[in-house]
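Predict structure. Input: Putative MFS family arabinose efflux permease, 403 residues.
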Amino acid sequence: MTAMTSDAAAIGDRLARRNAVILAVATALAGANTTVMFATGAIVGAQLAPVRSLATLPISIFVVGLAAASLPVGMLVRRYGRRTAYQLATFAGMLTGLFGYLGVTLASFPVFCLATFCAGFYASAAQSYRFAAADTASDGFRPKAISWVMTGGVIAGVVGPQLVVWTKDALPPVLFAGTYIGQAVVALLAGVILSFIDIPKPKPAPAGTVSRPTIEFFKNPAFVTAVICGAATYMLMNFVMTAAPLAMIGCNHTIDDAAYGIQWHVIAMYAPSFFTGSLIARYGAPRVVAVGLVLTALSAVVALLGLTVPHFYAALVLLGLGWNFGYIGASAMVAATARPEERTRVQSVNDFCVFGVMAIGSFSSGKIVTTYGWDMVNWVVFPIVALAAVALVMGARRQPVPA
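Output follows.
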C-alpha cells in the first residue's frame, strides 16, 4: 500500500468513526421505535383483530413494510445521498406513532396495521445504517464500523420497552395510546440527529464500466451463502420473537413481563456488537455465522424446557445473541462481495431477499402459535437452522467469486 493510499484510508476511517457514532445514536432511536412495535404489536393485534389467528398480522405487515422499502430506500440513497434518504425515512417513523395512536383510540385494526407498515418502512432504512458507516471505511475497519453502529441497539433495548412500561397507561382509558405518541417524538429526534452525518453520495461507475445486472450477484457463491444465512437468522429471530409476547400473555404472565422479555432480547441482539466486528476480523465471518446458528438452535431448546418467565427470558436472550452473530456475520459477507459503485444496490437486493423471507415466516407465526402452541413455534427453528448450516458449509467449500 502506497503512502498516499494509506493516508486516504486513514482519513476515510476517521470519517467512518464519526459517522458510526452518529448512526449508532440514530440506531438507538430507530430501534426503540421498532422495539415498541415488537412489544405491543401482537398484544394490540389480539385486542383489535376480528379473529385471534390474525393477532400477529400487524407484525407481519411490519415485515412487509421492511421488504417493500428496501429497494426504494436504496434508490433514494443513490439519488439523494444517505443523509436525505434517512431523514425522509424518519417521517415514516413519525407516521408510525400517529397512526398507532389513531388505531388504538379508534379501535381500528386496519389503521393500526397501517402504523406497523410505516414502522417497517422506517426500520428498513435504519437497517442500512450499518452499511452507511462502512462506506468510507477501509477493508480492515469495515466490520468494526458495522458493529459500532449496531451497538446503538443496546440503548434501543432499554429505551423501547421502558417507553412501553412508562406510557402504556399515560392516556387512559386507551392502552398504549401514550406509547405511540412517544414513538412519534422519538422519530422526530432521530431526524435531527441524522442531519449531522457526512457520507459522500455513492460514486458512479467508472467510465467504461458496465453495471452488472442483478442476476450476476447471485452467481457469486459468497453472496448467495450470505443471503441464505442472513435470511434464515433474521426470519427465525422475528418468527419466534413475534410469537413470544402473545405466548407469555397466554401463560398468564403480565404485559410488563412481556415488555421486559423483549428488552432483554433486544439488548442481547446488540450488546455483542461491541466485539462482533473484532471476532469477524479474527476468525472470519462464516465461523461467526455458524456460532449464531448454534445459539439460535439453543434458544429453541430452552424454550421447549418450560413456560416460566425465566425460560422465556433465557430463550429470548439466546435468540438475540444468535441473531447478532448470524446477521452481522452475514452482513459482513455481503459487504465483501460488492464493488464500491454498486454497494448500495447489492445491499438493497440482500435486504429485499432477507425481508421477503422474513415476511413469510412472520405471517405464519401467529397462525402457528394460536393453533399449535408455543412449542411448535420452537420446533420449526431446527430444520431452518439445519438448512442454513448446510448452505454455509457448501458455500465454504466453493471458491468465492471476488467482487
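Residues 3-48 form the longest helix (46 residues).
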